[in-house]
Amino acid sequence: MKNKVSGIILAAVAFFCVINSAWADGILLDTLTVIHNRKSVRNFTGKTVSREDLITIVKAGMAAPTAVNMQPWSFVIITERPALDSLSEALPYAKMLDRAGAAIVVCAIPEKAFQEKLELAVIDSCCASENILLAVEALGLGAVWTGVYPEKERMDVVRKQLNIPEKVIPLNVIPIGYPASGEKPRDKFKQGNIHWQRW
Ligand SMILES: Cc1cc2nc3c(=O)[nH]c(=O)nc-3n(C[C@H](O)[C@H](O)[C@H](O)COP(=O)(O)O)c2cc1C
Predict the structure, then answer these.
(1) Is the pLDDT of residue 25 over 60?
(2) At CA 17, angle to CA 14 and CA 23, rounded to 5?
(3) What is the value of pTM for the model shown?
(4) pLDDT confidence of residue 27
(5) What is the CA angle 131-103-55, rounded to 5?
């Protein structure tokens, strides 16, 4: 009887863990662990990232909150080596693209945003970008947000290379790949940045 009860309790705990967790590489990672483990990864092995993983990652991006649920975005997924290499050459702060297995460019579309506000398109797309970074971490891959918007020169380069329309804002380029070195997350918790009730 005692064994039966322990069995039921164990099964219940396992079920609770499954429904509250992310599944990565055979290991269950809870949401807070993924959030705190995320870090910028800039060294990759060069191994390609599967289409299935890329879809999982973009799907996480699309699950982000947006003002009035407008979802004012599009995602350009790049897997072809020549395209990754030429972006790497053209973008000084995204050199690591030459060893990445793929990249996602998060594009904000002001005309699809609530009241067609550029700011909301950008804010919403930032939410999607963070979800993308977290999904990458949960899958045991690495990524880094490389900035494009608001630098006009970088936006022009990315638009030109990827055929992105003028009215669409390439927010960032996110190289994704298998980590080549063991980057560690930083502890950024600062008590001084918290204000209870009032500033
Ligand atoms: C808006 C934005 C722009 C960034 N641009 C770049 C970039 O161009 N190149 C780069 O290597 N990292 C870039 N980063 C990554 C930051 O350098 C990184 O997030 C920061 O140093 C904190 O480190 P962590 O991501 O490991 O926590 C950018 C991050 C953000 C949010």
Answers:
(1) no
(2) 110
(3) 0.89
(4) 58
(5) 55
